[in-house]
Amino acid sequence: MPVTNVSHDIDARTITIAAEFAAPVDRIWQVYADPRQLEKIWGPPTFPATVVEHSLKPGGRITYYMTGPEGEKYAGYWEVDTVDEPNEFTFRDGFADEDFKPVESLPVSTNTYSFREEGGRTIATYVSIYETAEGLQKVLEMGVEEGASESINQIDGLVAG
User: pTM above the 0.90 mark?
Assistant: First the structure.
């Protein structure tokens, strides 16, 4: 499994996930840069994603929805802040309504996804910072650590195929 560690810190309002992939950095970057590849891993296997809009550049926006086992849809968005291809990108991730407008009552996280190559493998660090400890607690109760880990663990299979 690519995920090697998952931790959260309520006081710092963070979730940090470490992972290692059996592929070079450029290949892992493509998973996020290509909407068709991103939708294969953005969401746990039981909640596959459909990427609607995809602009991985500063000021860009990525919108998606995940479809649950009973056909229910959950929308979300990324607002991309910085891009340093293929090493890192930062974005704000939030919940959205069916028109991809932010749901103000749900937490937003500021995320940094970093990648570095080591011996032909990629070491990735995913850090999410929430505005409040309550917001972090809410997503923890929603299962964000398990869902994110399941999502990330799909990457090796995608890049191997």
Answer: yes
Q: Is the peptide bond before 86 cis (omega within 30 degrees of 0)?
A: yes
Q: Which domain holds residue 78?
A: 3-160
111-134 burial, b if ≥16 CB within 10 A, otherwise e?
bbbebebeeebbbbebbbbbeeee
Question: What would you measure as the largest C-alpha separation in the chain, in angstroms?
Answer: 44
Q: If you ran DSSP here, which 8-state letter would residue 144 be given? A: H
**What are the tens digits of pLDDT across the range 43-52?**
888 999 999 9
**Structural Rg of the chain based on CA atoms:** 15
CATH number of the domain within which 152 lies: 3.30.530.20
- Give the H/E segment covering residue 157: helix 155-160
